[in-house]
Amino acid sequence: MSNASTGFVLSDWQGDWESFEHYIDTEDETIRSTWDEAERAVLANPQMAPMAANGIRKFWAMACSTTSPENIIHIGYWTVGEPENADADVRITWYAEDNTNLDAYDYRIDHVIEHGLEGSPTYVFVTDDPHAEDSPFRWLLAIAPLPSRAAFAEGGLLSHLHFQYANDLHTLINTDDSGAETLRNPRWYATMCADEGTVEDRCRIIRALHHLD
Questions:
Q1: Which CATH number is 124's domain given?
Q2: From the centroid of its chain, how far is CA 195?
Q3: pLDDT tens-digit series, residues 22-40
Q4: Which of 63, 83, 124, 169 could connect to 106 by a Cys-Cys bridge, CB 3.0–4.6 Å?
């Protein structure tokens, strides 16, 4: 599948990424204060209050977990770059929280789900690397980074994206008799954020997520 037909722009993905779990688990007082403000705002909204019933950070920790039944290691970082294989579209290196290299694969776009994560077009990536036969990172679903990484340099928010992964595509996607695809777990929002900027830039992500501005 060509990049032109999918709208895939490698430059929007290239660079270093960090897990949104870092935002949730941080001990930084400024970020913690922003979470407290977000929780108060959510609890004040009757329609959203159930999200924060057990704490807003706990809610997002469950939704944005980077572990899976196939992988109990939290994913701390990605590095995304140009593929080594001419038939691939992107290369992703997966790192644990301690920067241990978990895997690095070239991925090609297999197809695009029209309404996937967040109801948005979602890329279905697969690696053809024979070493990935048993890897939990063999298949990857991801939406395009929002906003583009270039937008941050122009005063925009840090780029972020949602993803899911598994060894087998059918673990992630259900296909009905008509061929329509839906996510088996639409509430799993593992998230990566561009690994750049300041503490305040990270706070802006949390504020935007909860419509605080």
A1: 2.40.128.20
A2: 13
A3: 999 999 999 999 999 999 9
A4: 83
